Amino acid sequence: MVKERARILVVGGGYVGMYTALRLQRRLKRELERGEVEITVVTPDPYMTYQPFLPEAAAGAISPRHVVVPLRRVLDRCRVVIGEATAIDHAKRTATITTLATEEEGTGGQLLTYDELVLAPGSVSRTLPVPGLADHGIGFKTVEEAIGLRNHVIEQMDIASSTRDPAIRDAALTFVFVGGGFAGVEALGELEDMARYATRYYHNVQPEDMKWILVEASDRILPEVGEEMGRYAVTELRRRNIDVRLQTRLESCADRVAVLSDGARFPTRTVVWTAGVKPHPVLAATDLPRNDRGRLKCTAELAVEGATHAWAAGDAAAVPDVTAAEPGRECAPNAQHALRQAKVLADNIVHTLRAEPLQTYEHAYAGSVASLGLHKGVAHVYGRKLKGYPAWFMHRAYHLSRVPTFNRKARVLAEWTLAGLFKREIVSLGSLEHPRAEFELAAGGKPSQDPPVNPKGSS
Predict the structure, then answer these.
(1) Residue 365 CA: distances (Å) to CA of 137, 323, 332, 383
(2) How far apart are CA 322 and CA 300, in angstroms?
(3) Which residue ranges does the record annotate as region Disordered (predicted)?
(4) Distance between CA 26 and CA 15 in Å, rounded?
(5) Model confidence pLDDT, tens digit, residues 43-97
(6) 159 burial class (0-12, 13-18, 19+ CB within 10 angstroms)?
(7) Domains (ranges, CATH) in the chain?
């Protein structure tokens, strides 16, 4: 039993934030009913995005709304605040929060007080000072970016089909992906599959007219699936006429020309940047200890080192890997660890409130699965190596088992089933990015190029 009222603040609504809050509201159900505990979740989006499904959402295999989990529905016993933490003073147990109404109110950020802090803001794209990247690059971390990329690819095919200028056509049909991790390889594989299928509906665009280029700075792709499966993935992609360039960097994409470190130049209207992530900037606005990579220093119990009543996990946390043979190793910042860490983190907060001993986070890495497009994939799980259809099937089965809520599982499974019975959808809804443009033009104004008022939407 909790001895006194406890206010728990969870910063972030991603894997760790949502699963931690979900487990807390289950474990502390009676305390919540008695008003002894209050759980507040601060997140910029009203939903949690299941990122492994972003490539399939981009390819049209899954509806965008089934890739996200509405937090207000799932966390019905928590207070969900749509906003961002801009600063945290843990010594005073306060967090400065900005919400959607902050600018209109004109009173500055709100000050929230708490007793227990869970920092799970996740990560943001790690970009480099590449000329032209800020102007022309496309990210791939959010469902909005995934759907925007799908619309963009189909739009480029429309441009190529209608133009009489060979240079414009060539640039429109050249797609450059930077980064050979899960996000880059799976996004390229799924979108190339989709675009190849879509060419059957274009009278003057053939699959061989398109150039798909994967740029990776290291000497391998998909390091998580092992060296052998990584080599197979390269071979499989090249068999599909995808230009895989290892030990190569993007030097510039200014003026819509991708310049690579090996001297190659590709006029292109599509540069997708998936070359890594970095910790969320809010970590730098705290008084908590961080390592040289900007992640919070944590103990094996998922407590922030040297700070009482502060917890962290996932991308934001440097958690020691107690299962590693060599000392000093940390858990990889991936979804597999994040899901399991959230469970231990929530349990340890409950143990703290009830003055019970804490658990140690201990999980050996089971392996990884990756999709290379429809019916194609690679996997290295529990020492077993799979490729082709079996790996693709395992990829789908694994992620279907991990996507939160039975509701989402059923909807995703239904969509996969229907996709196997009917043809792919190849519709571009790019106008969604500027929904008021047509009305503004009809009203006599100049169509605005600004993003929608609330681009995140609601779930």
Answers:
(1) 33, 9, 9, 11
(2) 7
(3) 440-459
(4) 17
(5) 999 999 999 999 999 998 898 899 999 999 999 999 999 999 999 999 999 999 9
(6) middle
(7) 6-125+278-353 (3.50.50.60), 133-275 (3.50.50.60)
Residue 352 is classified by DSSP as H
Calpha distance 333→278 (Å, rounded) = 10
Residue 166: other Cβ atoms inside 10 A? 8
**What b/e readout covers 103-130, taking b as 16+ CB neighbours within 10 angstroms?**
eeeeeebbebebbbbbbbbbbebeeeeb
Residue 316: closest CA among 349, 288, 346: 288
Which residues on adjacent β-strands are paired with residue 304?
A: 298
Distance CA 367, CA 430 (A): 37
> Element (H or E) spanning 378, and its range?
strand 376-381
Of the candidates 246, 251, 250, 224, the residue with the CA atom closest to the CA atom of residue 235? 246
Of the CA atoms within 13 Å of residue 13, those in its CB half-sphere come to: 27
The bridge status of strand 242-245 relative to strand 211-215 is: parallel
Q: What's the rounded Cα separation, in Å, for the pair 18 and 21?
A: 5
Q: How far apart are CA 10 and CA 90, in angstroms?
A: 13
CB 177 within 8 A of CB 213: yes
Point out the residues of the chain with pLDDT beneath 50.
450-459
* Radius of gyration, CA atoms only, the chain: 23
